Structures are given as C-alpha cells and as structure tokens.
Recover the amino acids of this structure.
C-alpha cells in the first residue's frame, strides 16, 4: 500500500511530466529563429514606413532579450493578476497556457511559410535547390562551376537550382567580398563545399 504523500507526489510528478513532455518539440521549433525563420524573413517586407526604417531579418533576434525583460515586468504587473481572476494561479497552469500560446504562434509561422512559398518548395527530380544567405552587411561575390549566381547583396538571400548527376552531388563554392567591406580582410576568401541532395532544398548560411 502507498501512503497519501506518495500518491500525492506521484500525481504531481505525472502532471509535471505531462507539461514538460512537449518541451523538446518546443525548443526544436524555437531554435528555428536562427535559421529557417531568418530565411523566411528574407522573403518578407520588413519596411516600417511610419518609422522610416526597415527591419533586417536577423535584427529581431537581438531584441529578444529586451522583450524578455519587458514582458517579465508586464506579466508580473498586469497579466498574472488578470489570470488569477479566472483561476489560473498555479505554475503548471501558467506553463500549460503558455504552451498553448506557443502552439498558436508556431502554427501562424507555418501558415505564413505556406503562404510565402506555396508549392514552390517542390523540387523536380534530378535537381536540388540551394538557399544561400549572406549574413554580412556588404556585397559577396560567388564563384562556382555548378551554380548560376555571381553575387549576393548585403544581408540578402539567393535561391539557386542545381542540376544533379547523382542523388547527392558535392558543389564547390568560393565566396569573396567587396573590397570596400571592412568586416573582413581585403583578400579574404571563403572556400566551402555543400552536398546538394536530389529533390531537396538545401540551406547555406
């Protein structure tokens, strides 16, 4: 027989496990902000006309800590008291609610991705698609015998289709920078190789 304390502790542990079981999925999606969602933002118009300012795709990541501090204050002062009035007071209840809101946010991101790309992510057999993102705020020039692209604008994205001989071809790429770029040495070149897979979209950041 089990004591009441053991039964109570077991129930509490099961409740916690139920909430935390989705955390691996949450973090896997959350970390997409540094890769897939940055590429998604490249295809969107970040212009704020009323501020006469354009949001760069990777700038939102820089303000995430500021939002965290701001929301921490707002939640303590405004949101948590409102939730308490409708019976949401316990930490597990708050975690469950936040998880539901995260699901809604991820669904919005997925719907936005579908709206942007539509069926364009379908790659024909015998081809592979490469998305190359230039994370530098200067012009980057590209040399590759397999790719039909010669440059990428600052903080820009290019989408290149490569015709494949096999199911996975290795593409040699050399990047060199505009001589006026002060972020790298004047004669700096980046040599890399990317395995392009048949009927897949491959990303290179």
């Amino acid at each position: 027989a089990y004591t009441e304390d053991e039964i109570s502790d077991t129930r509490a542990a099961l409740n916690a496990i139920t909430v935390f079981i989705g955390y691996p999925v949450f973090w896997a999606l959350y970390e997409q902000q540094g890769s897939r969602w940055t590429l998604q933002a490249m295809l969107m118009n970040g212009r704020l006309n009323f501020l006469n300012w354009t949001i760069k795709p990777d700038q939102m990541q820089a303000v995430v800590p500021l939002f965290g501090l701001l929301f921490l204050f707002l939640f303590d002062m405004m949101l948590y008291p409102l939730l308490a009035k409708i019976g949401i007071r316990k930490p597990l209840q708050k975690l469950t609610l936040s998880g539901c809101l995260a699901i809604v946010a991820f669904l919005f991101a997925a719907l936005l991705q579908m709206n942007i790309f539509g069926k364009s992510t379908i790659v024909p057999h015998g081809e592979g698609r490469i998305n190359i993102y230039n994370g530098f705020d200067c012009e980057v020039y590209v040399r590759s015998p397999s790719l039909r692209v010669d440059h990428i604008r600052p903080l820009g994205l290019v989408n290149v289709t490569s015709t494949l001989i096999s199911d996975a071809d290795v593409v040699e790429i050399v990047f060199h920078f505009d001589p006026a770029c002060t972020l790298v040495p004047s004669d700096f070149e980046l040599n890399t190789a990317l395995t392009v897979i048949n009927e897949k979209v491959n990303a290179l950041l």
User: Anything to note?
Assistant: Residues 127-197 form one domain.
